[in-house]
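Contributing: when you submit paired examples, paste them exactly as shown. First protein:
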Amino acid sequence: MRILIVDDDAPVLDFLGMFFESLQHEAIKSNTYKDALKSLVKEQPDLVLLDIRMSEKDGLAIFKEMREIDRDVPIAMITAFKDAERIIEAFRLGAIDCLLKPFNIDYIVTSLLPRVRLRKR
């Protein structure tokens, strides 16, 4: 599975990248929204993990741009803030899940990943 991870927090990117690679998945890491949009087009990921609060652009705005580029890619939001309004808005936009930091690794493995279908390339 090819997973695009978008977060401006380097330790989060490194942790998730190593975690998914340990499960034999391909991790594509982006710490800016422009890089994330380029990676979305170039890499055609099976799943996007997108931080709700990015420093240079709001994660929900990035979500909308990603949907304009690729209507079908599953997007799960990640956040350290338990902001119900923003999480609800993410689900209204079509997010398949919202992962809270610190991450529940068991949930990612047993619930999130099994729901993702591999894309035909």
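Second protein:
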Amino acid sequence: MLGIVAGSGILPIIIAKAMTERGAVVVSACHRGETDPGLADQVREFTWVKAGQLGKIIKFFRSHKVTEVVFAGGIQRPNLLRGFWPDFTAIAVMARAGSVQDDKLLREIALEFERNGMQVLAPHIVLPELLTPAGFCVGELSAQQREDALLGWRAASALGELDVGQTAIVHRGMVIALEGIEGTDSCISRAGELCGAGFTVVKRAKPQQDSRLDLPTIGDTTIDTLLTAKAGALVIHAGSSLMLNPLEIERKARAGKLVIRSVHDIAELS
């Protein structure tokens, strides 16, 4: 039995639909104000929870004999500030984590599921095709875009070490925007307002990333945001990020003349 801890976006639906088609029994805990209600049509059973109701999720999963858990989709950080309802289980987990930073807290949450007899799996372990492949390429980086990507990769790495975000945006040798609590899409939109067309976006996993939790994710809606903001290039972390709807990503990127390159490390940009 697979349990999905569902946040925003289409990833929960992609996983639920694919696993159900492969014969798995899937149930889901859906976050109010985040999870697409359409997920209910793809799972055997579901329950709605508020952010912070960890004990309710665990109780629901145990009642359905869930043995494997996958986290799919994020919770918008501003929403956590405005509507966080920690139950006793969540409060205990936060106390053990000693931090509200993403990495420490998510690892402690995963441990709580494991203490209750459930194995936490990465989305790409459940569906290997979600992992961003090496060598994914649309168009070619210009010399300037390559230089900007090198700087962006280093900036995103430093940002990740601080457990702040996963995205850095560079234009003509200048760091324009770094992802904070607002999330990737808002960071991209802000960069477009600041510098206009042609900037380079780098999204990579944090150096200390737990691959089961909060991997960088790119979907075709991300491409829509990039095109609206008039980005010139996107560099993503091959093997350490998720790519949703790659065919649609490629189609939209080619139509909008957006360059995309997936790389394992900075050496591939040199």
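If you have annotations for the second protein, write them as plain sentences, like these:
Residues 119 and 224 are 35 Å apart (CA to CA).
The mean pLDDT is 93.
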